[in-house]
């Protein structure tokens, strides 16, 4: 017997773009290998191109008071210092919390996914910021100090930098056209903002039983980001609008990068990467653990096994004893009897449930 079929439409699965058939696809997907490649690509593109091309050069007047601030030789938060704090700080914090709050079986994966999300967000933010800086080409508040206009320049006359600036420091002059948006602000709010979102999830700040300290600890990184952003106006490196725009961009990119990997903060499992939740869903266990800690099965014996098609289930004595004590029953037998009666009554509905 032979079969034939006419293909009416060719299409690619939008979830995996047809890559599900390649070897080790599940490993590639779980460990975010595509994100790693994306991170490398953005780093090379930004580092070897967008940070080296010259920005658009707008005209200016030599008596523009908004461009007449002094050039600060000592910055409150230098770029190199920010880079160290921004990379090392969140990395160590995510590592520490992952080691403390996650069972041994999941520690490495939770930290790895958290760091990948942080790195991808930061790289994306830097790329967007550098593109906009070169495209907008607005002058910094200290631009005239960088330019050193010729003494023959007249007030209220528009000039190009090439026509009136006398400085020999071409690199510093070109950097004077990269004020919008603020790179310090965008990167700070992206990196530290991502960390705040991450702490919101890991500490379950929206849990009604949680203390106020959880929210305070989670917000500390954003307070640091605010200080970094405002320091750029104090050093006269940026206008206030540059700082506001950079902060908004950083916050949005940080939120985007976090939400790609973790559920919203009001989800019962906001501290669990999506991929681990997906594994539970595939194993038909997700709905069973909605009212308890996601990682209980990693530290206790398996508690429930259900086969909807056959209507069978079992529950271990250790898990029964634990839950009996926490629910106020006198013994695991008493709790187990009540639990099994309730579950048996639900078996007809469970058997119809689509997993």
Automatic annotation (TrEMBL):
Could you tell me the keywords of this UniProt record? Membrane, Transmembrane, Transmembrane helix
Gene3D superfamilies in alphabetical order: Phosphatidic acid phosphatase type 2/haloperoxidase (1.20.144.10)
What Gene Ontology terms describe what this protein does at the molecular function level?
A: phosphatidate phosphatase activity
Q: Example GO biological process term?
A: phospholipid dephosphorylation
- For the keyword Transmembrane, the answer is yes
Phosphatidic acid phosphatase type 2/haloperoxidase domain: residues covered: 115-258
The record's listing under InterPro entries reads: PAP-like, PAP2/HPO, PAP2/HPO_sf
Tell me how this protein sits in the membrane: Multi-pass membrane protein
Where are the annotated coiled coils located?
Answer: none
**Regions that span the bilayer:** 31-50, 82-102, 108-128, 187-205, 211-230, 239-258
Compartments (UniProt record): Membrane
> What is one cellular component GO term in this UniProt entry?
membrane
Annotated Pfam families: PAP2 (PF01569)
UniProt family annotation: Belongs to the PA-phosphatase related phosphoesterase family.
This protein is called Unnamed protein product
């Amino acid at each position: 017997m032979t079969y034939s079929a006419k293909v009416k439409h060719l299409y690619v699965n939008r979830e995996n773009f047809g890559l599900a058939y390649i070897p080790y696809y599940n490993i590639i997907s779980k460990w975010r290998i595509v994100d790693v490649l994306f991170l490398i690509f953005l780093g090379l593109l930004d580092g070897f191109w967008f940070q080296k091309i010259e920005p658009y050069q707008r005209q200016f007047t030599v008596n523009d008071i908004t461009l007449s601030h002094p050039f600060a030789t000592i910055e409150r938060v230098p770029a190199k210092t920010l880079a160290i704090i921004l990379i090392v700080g969140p990395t160590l914090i995510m590592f520490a919390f992952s080691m403390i709050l996650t069972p041994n079986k999941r520690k490495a994966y939770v930290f790895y996914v958290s760091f990948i999300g942080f790195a991808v967000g930061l790289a994306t933010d830097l790329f967007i910021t550098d593109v906009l800086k070169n495209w907008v080409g607005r002058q910094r508040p200290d631009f005239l100090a960088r330019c050193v206009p010729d003494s023959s320049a007249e007030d209220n006359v528009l000039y190009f930098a090439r026509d009136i600036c006398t400085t020999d420091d071409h690199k510093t002059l070109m950097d004077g056209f990269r004020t919008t948006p603020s790179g310090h602000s965008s990167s700070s709010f992206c990196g530290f903002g991502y960390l705040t979102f991450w702490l919101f999830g890991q500490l379950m700040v929206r849990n009604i039983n949680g203390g106020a300290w959880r929210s305070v600890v989670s917000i500390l990184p954003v307070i640091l980001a605010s200080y970094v952003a405002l320091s750029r106006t104090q050093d006269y490196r940026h206008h206030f609008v540059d700082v506001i725009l950079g902060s908004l961009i950083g916050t949005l990119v940080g939120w985007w990068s976090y939400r790609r990997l973790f559920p919203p903060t009001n989800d019962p499992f906001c501290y669990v990467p999506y991929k681990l939740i997906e594994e539970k869903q595939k194993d038909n266990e997700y709905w069973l653990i909605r009212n308890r800690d996601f990682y209980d099965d990693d530290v206790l014996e398996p508690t429930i096994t259900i086969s909807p098609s056959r209507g069978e289930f079992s529950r271990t004595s250790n898990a029964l004893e634990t839950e009996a004590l926490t629910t106020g029953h006198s013994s695991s037998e008493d709790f187990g009897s009540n639990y099994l009666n309730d579950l048996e009554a639900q078996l007809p509905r469970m058997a119809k449930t689509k997993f």
